[in-house]
From TrEMBL:
Annotated catalytic residues: 128, 220
Alphabetic keyword roster: Carbohydrate metabolism, Glycosidase, Hydrolase, Polysaccharide degradation, Signal, Xylan degradation
A Pfam family this chain is assigned to: Glyco_hydro_11
GO molecular function: endo-1,4-beta-xylanase activity; polysaccharide binding
Organism name: Streptomyces spiralis
Gene3D superfamilies: 2.60.120.180, 2.60.40.290
Top-rank taxon, per record: Bacteria
Family: Belongs to the glycosyl hydrolase 11 (cellulase G) family.
SUPFAM superfamilies tied to this protein: Carbohydrate-binding domain, Concanavalin A-like lectins/glucanases
Name listed for the protein in its UniProt record: Endo-1,4-beta-xylanase
GO biological process, one term: xylan catabolic process
Length: 339
């Protein structure tokens, strides 16, 4: 059976090694966390795991070049550059729960080799798994043997399995374990992942699923640059993230999903879709020195030079904007509320 390239295996090992080392520290953090207590945004630039506003989080980078901000509820943002070499970060639950779907929304801007995926581990047997919704220049299934495919949540996921031997994991630095992959054909940044559909498909191909460990909606970058702003919700996991969670991307019952449009040397387009309400208000915070130069199918106002407020103009819930780069290609962050 073919396996992932040596380069990709090596970086998985680095991530797993860190997670194994911090397992004890996580237990201590969880023991003293106050479930559900609101916390101010926290910026992280050193490796670690823990809980934040009722959610489990993980941040790891190989070298300095990335920053993670933990927002309210299931929100986090990440910016990284090539200096980080390899970075993996996200929010979710510990343990995860395959019986509950995961809903997420936000923005994800990848320049090079990056993933956006629901990521986690099983134990007994030990398995590392990925449900990849979006990726950049490198398809994570490269070098793997395809098992089959499954239709779920509006697209087809291709299924793969690889095996690691004497490799670092959450159980130690010399473990043998399988990796399970589900790669979405129609890339997206936001929506619902019906986790049970993927897990059942893996099982139908003879793969064994053990006891859930943690589960995060992860942004990953390898020798690349980019940014993300993700809000995750819906899953009902264990002690760090159990129970009902608010809808993603701003509350009030609306969700905003942003995808890339056309791009030129001096500007780029973003396509925006709003669901959950017809009386929405979307606020986009545009990083300086970028500027919004045009919008379509929406009423637009500008409280300040770096903020766009969009409301419906009778043309439905799909609209867009053009942003002048001015030397930068970091996407805005979006939030949604209802009136």
């Amino acid at each position: 059976m073919k396996t992932l390239t040596h380069e990709m295996r090596r970086r998985r090992g680095l991530v797993a090694a860190l997670r194994g080392l911090v397992a004890t520290a996580v237990a201590v953090v969880v023991a003293f966390a106050l479930p559900g207590a609101a916390q101010a945004d926290t910026t992280i630039s050193s490796n670690g795991t823990g809980t934040n506003n009722g959610y489990f989080y993980s941040f790891w980078e190989q070298s300095s070049g990335a920053t993670m901000t933990l927002g309210s509820g299931g929100n986090y943002s990440l910016t990284w550059n090539t200096g980080s070499q390899n970075v993996v970060a996200g929010k979710g639950w510990n343990p995860g729960n395959s019986a509950n779907p995961v809903t997420y929304s936000g923005t994800w801007n990848c320049n090079g080799n990056c993933y956006l995926s629901l990521y986690g581990w099983f134990q007994n047997p030990l398995v590392e798994w990925y449900i990849v919704d979006n990726y950049g220049s490198y398809n994570p299934s490269s070098g793997a043997t395809k098992l089959g495919s499954v239709s779920s949540d509006g697209s087809t996921y291709d299924l793969y399995k690889t095996t690691r031997t004497n490799a670092p994991s959450i159980e130690g630095n010399s473990s043998t374990f399988d990796q399970y992959w589900a790669i979405r054909q129609a890339k997206r940044t936001g929506g619902t992942i019906t986790v049970a559909n993927i897990f059942n498909a893996w099982k139908s191909h003879g793969l064994t699923l053990g006891t859930p460990n943690y589960e995060i909606l992860a942004t990953e970058g390898y020798q690349s640059s980019g940014s993300s702003n993700i809000t995750v919700g819906s899953s009902s996991g264990g002690s760090t993230g159990g129970g009902s969670t608010p809808p993603p991307s701003g509350g009030g019952g609306c969700t905003v999903n942003v995808t890339a449009g056309d791009s030129w040397s001096d500007r780029y387009n973003l396509n925006v879709s709003v669901s959950g309400s017809s009386t929405w208000k979307v606020t986009a915070k545009v990083p300086s020195p970028e500027k919004v130069s045009a919008t379509w199918n929406v009423n637009a106002s500008y409280p300040d030079a770096q903020t766009l407020v969009a409301t419906p103009n009778g043309n439905g819930n799909n609209w867009g904007l053009t942003i002048m780069k001015n030397g930068s290609t970091t996407w805005p962050t979006f939030s949604c509320s209802t009136s």
